[in-house]
User: Which sequence fits this backbone?
């Protein structure tokens, strides 16, 4: 088996998370797949997969090598298509994950347009507020609102958001003074929560973090419910700027303590393969970047 074929076997095994599944997909025997991976590991003098009796998982070296392999295979496919006069178009199933409310407001419309433009693509959408492991879940693209933490992933920044503190005009008209973060202890607080950590809001003063421990009157694991409670005049909440941008524009909520806002967080489109993605991934990243670049609330 030549090196390129072995790379294809490796990429398929990494994608499916199983030597047996890769063998079935490639119409090979399971021992042949195992031998191909073993040969690659011997040539590279490193282990590409952690193996157990039930599953396989890429090693750190395997993740890095997968990025290179995907790039090489994509380049070969594009070169062959160019010689044949064929334009590669996205096709197959694309799996995308995003935070729940961000996914509803921004990513779902992008997915809809993507599906209209590329009829040979299907999309599986997973909206979660927690970070999803792309390898474990076999997800192609993740939209994350945070600083990058995994150097084994490829990420491109498509915008910025920050936490903002808001309340309704009616609440503020009848509430105690609110000039510093410490004044929050005199107010009714609404806390969007996963109930896993103590309620704390972080602010910035003179470049230093000011952590305010809270005693919320209302805690809820759904951001929409917290926003609704704030708009009704119940109290003050703190959420991502994009989550309350529409309510601020309509005058339903007012931003307060702006001079104490913490630093911006990047909105990133994250994938495994790197700059020469599979065509469906590369094209979807382009769609997300183009659409979000036009939104003033994500680039101010």
Assistant:
């Amino acid at each position: 088996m030549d090196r390129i074929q072995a790379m294809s076997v490796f990429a398929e095994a990494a994608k499916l998370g199983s030597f047996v599944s890769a063998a079935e997909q490639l119409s090979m025997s399971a021992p042949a797949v195992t031998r191909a991976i073993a040969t690659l590991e011997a040539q590279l003098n490193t282990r590409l997969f952690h193996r157990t009796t039930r599953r396989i998982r890429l090693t750190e070296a395997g993740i890095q090598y997968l990025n290179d392999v995907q790039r090489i295979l994509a380049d070969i496919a594009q070169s062959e298509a160019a010689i044949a006069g064929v334009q590669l178009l996205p096709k197959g199933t694309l799996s995308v994950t995003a935070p729940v409310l961000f996914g509803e407001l921004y990513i779902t419309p992008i997915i809809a347009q993507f599906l209209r433009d590329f009829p040979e693509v299907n999309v599986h959408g997973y909206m979660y507020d927690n970070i999803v492991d792309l390898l474990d879940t076999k997800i192609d693209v993740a939209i994350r609102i945070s600083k990058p933490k995994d150097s084994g992933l490829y990420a491109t920044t498509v915008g910025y958001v920050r936490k903002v503190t808001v309340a309704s005009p009616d609440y503020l008209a009848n509430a105690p003074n609110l000039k510093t973060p410490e004044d929050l202890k005199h107010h009714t607080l609404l806390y969007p929560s996963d109930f896993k950590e103590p309620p704390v809001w972080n602010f910035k003063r003179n470049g230093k973090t000011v952590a305010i421990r809270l005693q919320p009157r209302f805690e809820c694991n759904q951001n929409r419910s917290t926003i609704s409670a704030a708009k009704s005049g119940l109290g003050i909440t703190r959420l991502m700027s994009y989550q309350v941008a529409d309510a601020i524009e309509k005058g339903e909520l007012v931003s307060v303590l702006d001079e104490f806002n913490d630093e911006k967080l990047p909105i990133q489109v994250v994938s495994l393969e790197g700059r020469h993605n599979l065509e469906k991934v590369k094209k979807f990243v382009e769609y997300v970047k183009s659409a979000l670049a036009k939104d003033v609330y994500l680039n101010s």
Notes: DSSP finds ten helices and 14 strands in the chain.
